[in-house]
Amino acid sequence: MLPVVAIVGRPNVGKSSLFNQLTKTEDALVADFHGLTRDRIYGHIVKDENEIILIDTGGLEHDHGDLSQVINQQTEQAIEESDLLLFVVDGREGLTVSDQEITQRLRKKNKNMILVINKTEGMNDQDLASDFYALGFKDTLSVSALRGDHCQSLIDLISASLTQDEAIVDFEELPEDLISVALIGRPNVGKSTYINSLIQEDRLLTEDQPGTTRDSIFINYRFGKHDLVLIDTAGIRRKKKVEETIEKFSIVKALQALDLSDAVIVMIDGNEGITDQDLSLIGLVLNSGRALTIAINKHDLLNEEDIENIDRQIKRKLKFVSYVDIEFISAKDSKGLKGSLKLAVNAANRAMQTVATSELSKLVEGLMETDPPPYVQGRRIKLKYAHQGGVQPPTFIIYGNQTKKLRDNYKKFIEGQIRSTFSLFGTPIKLFFKDSKNPYSDRKNKLSSRQWKKRRRIIRLRKKRA
Predict the structure, then answer these.
(1) CB 334 within 8 A of CB 353
(2) β-strand pairing of 217-223 with 226-232
(3) What is the distance between the alpha carbons of residues 17 and 154, in angstroms, rounded to a whole number?
(4) Are 383 and 368 in contact, with CB atoms under 8 Å apart?
(5) What's the mean pLDDT in 115-121?
(6) pLDDT for 294-313, tens place per residue?
(7) pLDDT (tens digit per residue) in 402-437
(8) C-alpha torsion sign, points 168, 171, 238, 73
């Protein structure tokens, strides 16, 4: 299972900025006022080939009015879920009474902790650290979340601390020759009913109320020629609605199940339509790089008007996953289950597909002739060749000149061409663009006086035309 790290501290010490730096995203809102982060935000730290779940929390301080109880509850749950805590303090303000009180609270949790002194740009690290020695932390590191100073060192320290932590030694692995399919969705969308109907056995507890499944459950299943492992996960609620102690780990369990899966079926309640929470779950799967299939359940309860409404929502809300298969199912009546599972298995196989370098480079060369990228500052961007850098998700590295100036819409165009040419549907694709090394880049071209005069004349003519 993936280890879990939580960022805690009082408000406005830079927790969300640090979250963005460590995850290399902009998922956490950042602004210079207290109490901005109210719910837990989940992301991933990538270290070599390993991943770590990172949780951003609200500030541990009672100064948010009516929101203080909710924020502190969310933070307490994040602390319980975590294997390691990053306690962030403000290096410019120095040690405060609030920092000392929070330290006492955290020590009662008996968690492995790292003290992170933030906002240290342009300051002496030793002087800063001496101010916080009184807190008695074994591991301390000064960083600048704003500029990214020493954030890579912090990732190394996190990885080393987790490696030494006995809590993460007990992890789960699935056989490599089995395809694992995880079912995720909001509570009471029918995930357990789906599996029971599929295996024709009341293996999983089902009730007409949310929260019946409390943990991830693994079931072996023979599907045609494939040996599968079906993973039923606990339903993911909106974070502020998670109140029962036994449900505190639901979201983390689902995230860890994603790490074990080859493909994911996101189940949506057809009665309620496509909600923002469903879109968040789909985004979670895409960020994890897993193959994806969407199943809209309770089709037996929908009339024609409801179906038309769902179709409109699919066209409007799911445009960003237009390459993903969507299946209407009824878990209760066992309709469409094998069809949706077949789509998930196909998507998993495509995510593991390899593409020959010669075919990929041939596609890139053809695009340069038929649909070249637009000129930038009068210069043409040329892509030369490409190769595959990995699978699950399929990753491609494309070489050329001035690739940093490629527009996002052209990158999307290349992604679409690769997807359609090699039938990579149902899986996200990652593209990396690199500039080819110029063998003459280190050589300085010294111009003669005559060449300088000619260059100045050309510049004057261009300015007049402009």
Answers:
(1) no
(2) antiparallel
(3) 14
(4) yes
(5) 90
(6) 999 999 999 999 999 999 99
(7) 888 898 999 999 999 999 999 999 999 999 999 877
(8) negative
Report the distance separating Cα 116 and Cα 142, nearest Å: 6
Residue in the structure block whose two tokens are 């549907």: 425
In sequence order, the 6+-apart residues with CB closer than 8 A to the CB of 283 are: none
Relative to beta strand 382-390, strand 112-118 is unpaired
Q: What is the pLDDT of residue 39?
A: 52
Using the structure block, give the residue that is written with the tokens 């770590």.
52
180 strand-pairing partners: 229
DSSP reduced 3-state for 259: helix
Q: Can you tell me which residue has the tokens 């100073």?
A: 149
Q: Which segment of 36-40, 292-296, 447-451 scores lowest on mean pLDDT?
A: 36-40
Which DSSP string do the residues of 106-152 spell out, in sequence order?
Answer: HHTTT-EEEEEEE--TTS-HHHHHHHTGGG--SSEEE-BTTTTBTHH
Whole-angstrom distance, CA of residue 3 vs CA of residue 174: 17
Cα gap 68→242, rounded to integer Å: 16
Report in angstroms the alpha-carbon separations of 292 from 34, 94, 196. 38, 47, 21
Residues 183 and 284 sit within 8 Å (Cβ to Cβ): no
- The pLDDT tens digits of the residues spanning 321-348 come to 999 999 999 999 999 999 999 999 999 9
Classify residue 392 as left (phi > 0), alpha (psi -120 to 50) or beta: left
Instruction: Note the pLDDT of residue 238.
Output: 53
Q: Cα separation of 60 and 74, whole Å?
A: 10
Cα 6 from Cα 78, distance rounded (Å): 6
Q: How far is CA 279 from CA 274, 315, 457, in A?
A: 7, 13, 57
Q: Would strands 112-118 and 179-185 be described as parallel, antiparallel, or unpaired?
A: unpaired
Relative orientation angle of helices 276-288 and 250-260, to the nearest 10 degrees:
40
| Single-letter amino acid code for the residue at 70 | V
Helix (H) or strand (E) holding 51: strand 50-56
**Confidence (pLDDT) at 250:** 56
Most trustworthy range by pLDDT among 104-108, 155-159, 457-461:
155-159
Q: By C-alpha distance, which of 167, 149, 181, 350 is closest to 257?
A: 181
Residue 154: pLDDT over 60: yes
Query: Half-sphere exposure (CA, 13 Å, Cβ side) for 418?
Result: 29
Q: Tell me the CA end-to-end span of the chain in Å, nearest whole number.
A: 61
Q: What is the mean pLDDT of residues 37-46?
A: 67
Which helix H or strand E contains 451, and what residues bound it?
A: helix 449-465
